[in-house]
Amino acid sequence: MILSLGWKNIWRNKTRSLVVIIAVMLGIFGGVMASGIMQGWIEQRIHTSIYNEIAHVQIHDSAYMENEELKNIIKDYNQVEGVLDTMKGVTAWSPRVKLMTMAEIPTNGAIGGLILRGVDPEKEKKVCEIYRNIVAGDFLEERPGVPSIVLGSKAAETFKLVNYQITPSKLKAINPDDFPDEVIGKVEKGTQDNFENKRDFEKELRHILSKDEYDEYATKLMKYFAYYELGKKMYISLPSKGDNELISGNFAVKVNGIYDTDNDMWDGMNAYVDRQAMNKITGLTDTEVHEIGIITPDRETGVNVAKNLGKYLPGYHIMSWREASPEIAMYTDFSAVMAYIYVAIILLALAFGIINTMMMAVLERIKELGMLMAIGMNKKRVFGMIMTESVLLTLTGAIFGMVFSGIILGILGRTGLNFEMFSEGFEAMGYASLIYPKVSVLDYLITTLLVIITAVISAIWPARKALKLNPVEALRTE
Asked: Which of 10, 114, 140, 406 is a Cys-bridge partner for 121, taking CB atoms 3.0 to 4.6 Å apart?
């Protein structure tokens, strides 16, 4: 009876009840959306960090961690290889030679520092997803003659290997889903000159686009109309075995690939070459490497594999992804906590709305409540009725909010949420501008439980107000 009576009482003032229901629905949507964006954003950063940069587990010689010199190689490669091939939880692994170098392209007059990674291309593809981010050329495909090098897009800018041009072929191939017709039309009328640097092309885009269009689409347009000059010969200074000093320009390579990730800092510093070609210059053998990157089925397995490897390979420096990138591990630990803090803040605001609504409902029905108590309804039942009304009112809004959030997040989980106008700042920090919100079923259930708790707590004050009513005095109220 209390449940039925409470439901009917909600709809006695439909306008007020609908306002509260809509407020709860939008509050839940805001909380779930904030949680989904944060978790999706962090999840993408963790994935990029592991599969492009650090892997689930890394093995180094202890001396290499103190001084990244050519001589500080993994001492017993064959032993490590045997352990990794039989270790449960190891999906794939890749050996690497990694050195700080100086590189120069004389024809461009460009010089800069690079972290050069000598890898076995096929093994590296099983551990690292850089090959999936190739935007020009290829990832260390075999070619006769001069060895290939793969640079990041930011490094390509440093070495003057990128220019920009609005060409008919590019305009014809443009995806209309990526840009509005108005933007495409303005670009078509733009200058079809060759812009040798990013700054000049930015000026052109500022000239032909409105400020809002520039803020939203400029970064994407610059990437689309970028042309990378491949085939240029680069000279890299490498040390040789037994001598840690760099020998000027002793390693000649050709730029045959450009990759582009969400991390501009990584793209500006890291380059890839075939390990065998690099070994011919440094004098290292096939069993002499500085780093081994390991991929496991999931992140927790990676942590366990790192612990187990420490038992079988004492004396080596073995790091899980948590140790190799502690800031990423921190994001994992605190992402859910931060998401619930956002939800709690929203629910706190909603609580005041619920208190106000239920207090008004009690004050407007003083005479009615006095009559109910006069004919025999005890205070316990009156308290239960007010509490029931509050819970039903909030739960109705929560159900609509959950359904609405589920539909929107389901769509955004497939299409992504584009923050293109902030992409330059995001990528400078290593984050993607296209975010795929992610919320688990458990998150929905916990949010629903928090809503119910909020409703119960918010209804206590109005319900206590009703309990203090004197039936005789209440009946005299006009």
From this structure: 140
pLDDT at residue 471 above 60?
A: no
Helix (H) or strand (E) holding 134: strand 134-137
Residues forming a β-bridge with 291: 96
What is the distance between the alpha carbons of residues 388 and 371, in angstroms, rounded to a whole number? Answer: 19
List the one residue out of 143, 75, 121 whose CA is nearest residue 276. Answer: 121
DSSP collapsed to 3 states, 41-105: HHHHHHHHHHHHHHCCEEEEEHHHHHCCCCCCCCCCHHHHHHHHHHCCCCCEEEEEEEEEEEEEE
* Residue 411 parent element (H or E): helix 379-415
Q: Where are the alpha helices (DSSP H) in 225-298?
A: 264-269, 275-282
Residue type, 182: E
Phi-psi region of 137 (alpha: psi -120 to 50; beta: other; left: phi over 0): left
39 or 469, greater pLDDT:
39
Residue 100 and residue 113 in contact, taking contact as beta carbons nearer than 8 Å: yes
Contact of 133 with 48, CB cutoff 8 Å:
no
CA distance 150 to 130: 10
How far apart, in whole angstroms, are the C-alpha atoms of residue 366 and residue 133?
69
Nearest Cα to Cα of residue 81 among 268, 401, 316, 240: 316
**Cβ-based burial of 296 (10 A; exposed 0-12, middle 13-18, buried ≥19):** buried
Q: Span 278-291, mean pLDDT?
A: 94
Positive or negative torsion for Cα 356, 360, 363, 365: negative
Long-range contacts of 279-283 (CB under 8 A, 24+ apart): 279/97, 279/118, 281/238, 281/240, 281/250, 281/251, 282/70, 282/97, 282/99, 282/238, 282/239, 282/240, 282/241, 283/240, 283/241, 283/242
> Rounded to an integer, what distance in angstroms lies between the CA atom of residue 176 and that of residue 10?
49
143 token code pair: 């070619």
Domain boundaries, the chain: 2-48+328-476, 57-161+229-295, 162-228
> Do 138 and 256 meet the contact criterion of CB atoms below 8 Å apart?
yes
Of residues 296 and 169, more confidence is placed in 296
Q: Give the closest residue to 286 by CA, choosing from 141, 63, 97.
A: 97
Question: Strands (DSSP E) along 154-307, which ranges?
Answer: 162-165, 194-195, 226-228, 233-240, 243-259, 270-274, 291-295
Neighbours of 269 (CB within 10 A): 18
Cα separation, 1 vs 353, whole angstroms: 26
pLDDT at position 147 over 90: yes
